[in-house]
Design brief:
With about 475 residues, this protein is mainly alpha-helical. It folds into 2 domains: about 180 residues, MFS general substrate transporter like domains (Growth Hormone, Chain: A); about 230 residues, MFS general substrate transporter like domains (Growth Hormone, Chain: A), CATH 1.20.1250.20. Helix 2 runs antiparallel to helix 5, helix 2 runs parallel beside helix 6 and helix 9 runs antiparallel to helix 12. The longest helix is centred in the C-terminal third of the chain and has 49 residues. The radius of gyration is 24 Å and the shape is globular. The chain starts with a helix and ends with a helix. The N terminus and C terminus are likely disordered. Its main location: membrane. This is MFS transporter. It is a multi-pass membrane protein.
Length: about 475
């Protein structure tokens, strides 16, 4: 260890006070393994999301094929969504008490067994409707636990300086998987009713194998006594962080608006080809991918929640114009692309704040409260959209949504509302570290570091430091591995 200290001092002298030795050592021992771990994590996340989206289509189709009843298909869809409404808060409590890695492995293994049970009875004329509903409920429950555990695992695997990039890539992977998953589910079921379940059994096994590589100690939770009060800690934690509390209100409202708009479009799509309807509905996912890419290269916006509201206002205005000029599908598609871009930018900012500002011991509960609120709005949007079309037709419903959205965006600029519902990003949020590729891309498109960003504002007048040195943690085992590689 003395040799390492001597080398460290020489590095300091040669670099004028900057510890380049530590930087080289960190690069030697962890750069490749870290990238490998992140690649495994993103691949596993995308695979699991594809599985969830395909089963979201396959279970209702299987119920319809087995019974011939559209009502049975509706019950299968309800069985998939019911756990979302009732388990996010208690699921967050569970994930905060147990290793997220263990929760993920158990969830993926359980999903694999669930689809395998459906496959096993197909040669004998099954499954029954009761079996389908139970399997759908199991899928919903395990998917909720998986998403909460994944959110809690990311800060453990990723270094703080690279967290923003990791969140942006995770957001993009989720959107890509969502775009592919739903049409893939319908296509696979068209080949044979057993095909989507067989494919998903393989996908869940692969996802489970990839998560095994995150390390045994990843996300280990300290044992401590629990109480009923801990169940609601996520709500109390949100009140301690004005930005996160405001983000829940803003995203819940905007999710309600955009999903109501989707229901209005679907209700007024009589005579439109199914291909065109599918393309329009997929536009939001395309926007999400674009927004995730922009989030990775653009500096964070201080007033991201207000920007979010105005993007939604412009998008709903486009949709309303489309209904008036007789081109609803084209204008709705552009509107959904815009909301996808704005939603991805906001999601990356919100998740970054959650990871950096929330106590890791309560992170899953905070995420659970946030997702319960946003998914509850999605469930409410279906009857609301149908009611608006019944009362005021497609044009009237679209115009009403646009007016409500503009009023909300304009009201967000009023002092008391602005500070409570659309506060700025926290001033001490760490500045994201970009890869060389993204830095070069930013220079090409003319994006300069934002001197007014909250992170940079706090760093004005202070010596610049390499952010990678903030997260260097060298163990004797790492040094030995680095020496072996150097030799």
């Amino acid at each position: 260890m003395r040799d390492l200290a001597d080398d460290r001092q020489v590095g300091l002298e040669k670099a004028g006070g900057v510890d380049k030795t530590a930087e080289r050592l960190q690069t030697a021992i962890s750069a490749v393994p870290l990238r490998f771990r992140l690649a495994r994590l993103w691949a596993a996340s995308a695979i699991s999301t594809v599985g969830a989206r395909t089963l979201g289509v396959a279970y209702p189709l299987l119920a319809l094929a087995q019974t011939g009843s559209p009502a049975a298909a509706g019950w299968a869809g309800f069985a998939l969504t019911l756990p979302v409404l009732v388990l996010y808060v208690p699921g967050g409590f569970l994930v905060d008490r147990i290793s997220p890695r263990h929760v993920i492995l158990c969830a993926e293994a359980g999903r694999m067994l669930s689809v395998a049970s459906v496959l096993a009875v197909m040669p004998f004329g099954g499954p029954s409707l009761a079996h389908i509903l139970l399997a759908a409920v199991a899928e919903g429950v395990l998917w909720v636990l998986y998403t909460l555990a994944e959110a809690a695992l990311l800060p453990v695997v990723v270094q703080p300086a690279m967290m923003h990039q990791a969140v942006a890539r995770s957001e993009g992977a989720a959107h890509i998987a969502s775009i592919a998953g739903r049409p893939l589910g319908g296509y696979l079921f068209g080949i044979g009713r057993y095909v989507p379940f067989a494919v998903n059994a393989v996908l869940f096994a692969l996802s489970c194998a990839l998560f095994l590589g995150t390390g045994r100690a990843a996300g280990r939770r300290p044992a401590r006594p629990s109480s009923l009060r801990d169940l609601t800690e996520g709500f109390r934690e949100l009140t301690r962080h004005p930005f996160l509390g405001g983000s829940v209100a803003v995203t819940t409202f905007t999710n309600l608006m955009v999903n109501t708009l989707i229901m209005i479009f679907v209700a007024g799509s009589a005579g439109m080809s199914s291909l065109k309807i599918g393309i329009v509905l997929a536009a939001g996912g395309v926007g999400g991918v674009l927004g995730s890419f922009l989030a990775a290269i653009l500096p964070p916006v201080r007033r991201v929640l207000r920007v979010h509201l105005w993007i939604w206002s412009g998008a709903l205005g486009l949709a309303a114009v489309g209904t008036m000029v007789g081109l609803p599908s084209y204008f709705f598609a552009v509107a959904l692309v815009a909301t996808g871009i704005g939603g991805a930018l906001s999601n990356v900012a919100i998740r970054s704040v959650e990871i950096h500002k929330v106590d890791p011991a309560t992170l899953a509960r905070v995420v659970g409260v946030s997702r319960l609120s946003s998914h509850g709005a999605i469930c409410l949007s279906a009857p609301l959209g149908g009611f608006m079309v019944t009362v005021g037709d497609v044009t009237g419903g679209s115009l009403l949504l646009c007016v409500l959205m503009v009023l909300a965006a304009a009201g967000s600029g009023w002092g008391p509302v602005r500070e409570r519902l659309t506060p700025s990003l926290p001033a001490d949020l760490p500045e994201p570290e970009l890869s060389d590729l993204l830095q070069g891309l930013r220079r090409r498109i003319g994006v300069r570091p934002d001197s007014g960003s909250p992170a940079r504002a706090d760093l004005e007048g202070t010596p610049k430091r390499d952010s990678r040195l903030m997260s260097v943690h060298v163990t004797g085992r790492d040094v030995a591995c680095a020496n072996r590689r150097a030799g």
